[in-house]
Amino acid sequence: MEYEQVLLHVGNSGERLNTRHLYALSGMNREELALFQSVWPNIEASRRRLVMRNLVELAEHSFEVNFDPIFLLAMGDEDSEVRMAAVDGLWENEDQALIGPLVHLLRADESPGVRASAAMALGRFVLLGELEEIDRAPAMLAEEALLEALRQAGEEVEVRRRAIESIGYSSASGVREIIEAAYYDDDERMQSSALFAMGRSVDPYWYKLLYQELDNPNPELRFEAARACGELEAPLAVSRLARMSLDDPDREVQEAAVWALGRIGGREAREALEACCESEDEALSEAAAEALDEMDLLGEGVDISLFGDSDEYE
Q1: pLDDT value of residue 73
Q2: Which of 146, 158, 169, 205: disulfide with 126, CB 3.0–4.6 Å?
Q3: pTM
Q4: Cα–Cα distance measured from residue 190 to residue 306, given in angstroms and rounded to the nearest whole number
């Protein structure tokens, strides 16, 4: 199908969207982008949302497509759902020039959903700054915008929690206190994000709290604690994670424990994963096999003396 015909199809709200045609929007040249830009604002909002959702999904499942010019354009769309999808679609874009537009959305967008998406997206630039893969000045701009959102009186919980998750990458002074305050917040959504941020922090300070949260009655918090233990490669969590991988009543928590065991490594983790591979639960068995592959890729890890069946972590 010719490019002009693709645009006609994309803009026709009365026609069922054929996702195969969207591949023609990948890697557009300057003239094609200009034509797209002239057509896009005239398409009905519901159709723009549908197109954006499909583009994001295609980008997530294929490394061969590149819709970034469309996503960058759509960051300024008048529809908040389109703007949110545009930010989500740029999840792999590490160009530091993107920091300024994201900061603007976080500070000024009227939609809490868009601000939350911008806060999440800024996290990768905080990480890139910590890894010294981008200039320090733009990385600091991202951090300051996140801190500003956290200080903003009356800001929505969804925005604040995403800002906490993103600032978790930062080694700046005061970040530990921010995460700790979120952990002790009455809102379990904030507690969940605090656990998520602990995993990103590369800070063994959080070991004790994470070990405790592996027994939290809330499965969402157990899930985040298990993931964070894996991110931090927390050695004393292995015994508890091993039991969770087989016995936790929540499937997602089980899979998080399996993933964490693969990241931590060591003899006990390997034995636990091998036991999971023997499970009649096909999904659990497959997850364990993938975790063993991850363990082999990363290396065995440090095998240390554990507390056996004891749940007392010192």
Answers
A1: 96
A2: 169
A3: 0.89
A4: 31
